[in-house]
DNA sequence: AAAATAGTCAACCGCACCAAA
DNA sequence: ATTTGGTGCGGTTGACTATTT
């Protein structure tokens, strides 16, 4: 059993994708369509696993992928959405056209998470809060506490993660700092997560 | 110029969920 | 009711690049 897993691991190519591999994957999907990744992996001639193909397509090759640095409005929206939803990267990315969950997650971990901790140190008493979103309403922790985990010890890490940004109560209403761009609307978030409950 | 360190991001892994058999 | 295969998600790793010493 373990031997078979080991064999599969050595047969499947890993690591960074080469331009030729991208070309093969792209043209295969253009002719046969998306989905059935195991099939794509087998029939395209790529020595990649289905998961790897799916990830590459979703995060890099898919049309309309936006690359490059985040705009100020995207930055702003990520912060707000994270405050509301926690680490629900796919939901957050869903509100950022052309951005992937992986990209949003990376952006948060590299740019915002750090800022969060440093701002907390700089202004420990200045943390603004809105009571009902102190805890991201659909954070991983919340989902786990609804039966997805053992529900063991008290975990307050979410407080540290989400209280870091001052949240101006005055802009708690769905008003964007950036007119005619991405308008943050909590209703979107709610319609996104309620079906999951 | 070279080595050490820090930052970034693409990709992998494990787990959970769902539908079909 | 159980098993199996496909898919999606979030956490983590590691390769690569930039910066500092």
What does this structure look like?
The protein is an all-alpha fold. Mean pLDDT is 67; it is low at 1-9, 120-135, 139-181 and 189-197. It folds into 2 domains: 2-61, Arc Repressor Mutant, subunit A, CATH 1.10.10; 72-196, no CATH class. The chain starts with a helix and ends with a helix. It has helices spanning 2-11, 19-32, 37-43, 50-61, 72-85, 89-94, 101-122, 140-148, 157-162, 186-193. The protein binds a DNA duplex (21 and 21 nucleotides) through residues 14-17, 35-38, 49-52, 54-56, 58-60, 87-90, 101-103, 105-107, 109-111, 140, 148. One of its GO terms (molecular function) is transcription cis-regulatory region binding. Its main location: nucleus. It holds the Pfam family Myb_DNA-binding. Residues 9-61, 62-112 form the Myb-like domain.
Concise synopsis of the structure shown:
The protein has 197 residues and is mostly helical. Helix content is 55%, strand content 0%.
Which SSEs are present, and which pair or pack?
Layout: H1 2-11, H2 19-32, H3 37-43, H4 50-61, H5 72-85, H6 89-94, H7 101-122, H8 140-148, H9 157-162, H10 186-193
Helix pairs in contact: 3-4
The structure holds a DNA duplex (21 and 21 nucleotides).
Question: What's the order of the H and E elements?
Answer: HHHHHHHHHH
Cα-atom Rg, whole angstroms?
Answer: 20 Å
Number of helices: 10
Report the portion of residues in β strands: under 5%
Secondary-structure-derived class:
mainly alpha
Q: What helical percentage do the residues reach? A: 40-55%
The biggest sheet amounts to: none
Low-confidence stretches: 1-9, 120-135, 139-181, 189-197
Overall tally of structural domains: 2
Overall mean pLDDT stands at: 67
What general outline do the C-alpha atoms trace?
elongated
How many distinct beta strands?
0
Our measurement of the CA-to-CA distance between the termini, rounded to an integer number of angstroms, reads 37 Å
Keywords: DNA-binding, Nucleus, Repeat
GO molecular function, one term: transcription cis-regulatory region binding
Subcellular location: Nucleus
GO cellular component, one term: nucleus
């Amino acid at each position: 059993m373990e031997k078979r897993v080991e064999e599969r691991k050595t047969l499947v190519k890993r690591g960074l994708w080469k331009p030729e591999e991208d070309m093969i994957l792209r043209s295969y999907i253009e002719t046969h369509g998306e989905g059935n990744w195991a099939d794509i992996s087998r029939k395209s001639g790529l020595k990649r696993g289905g998961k790897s193909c799916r990830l590459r397509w979703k995060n890099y090759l898919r049309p309309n992928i936006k690359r490059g640095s985040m705009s100020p409005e995207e930055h702003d929206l990520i912060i707000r959405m994270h405050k509301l939803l926690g680490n629900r990267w796919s939901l957050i990315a869903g509100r950022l056209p052309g951005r992937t969950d992986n990209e949003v997650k990376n952006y948060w971990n590299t740019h915002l998470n750090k800022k969060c901790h440093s701002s907390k140190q700089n202004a420990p008493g200045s943390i603004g809060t809105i009571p009902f979103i102190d805890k991201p309403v659909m954070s991983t922790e919340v989902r786990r506490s609804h039966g997805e985990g053992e529900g063991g010890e008290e975990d307050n890490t979410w407080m540290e993660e989400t209280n870091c940004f001052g949240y101006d109560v005055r802009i708690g209403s769905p008003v964007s700092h950036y007119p005619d761009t991405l308008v943050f609307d909590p209703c979107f978030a709610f319609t996104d997560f309620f079906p999951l409950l």
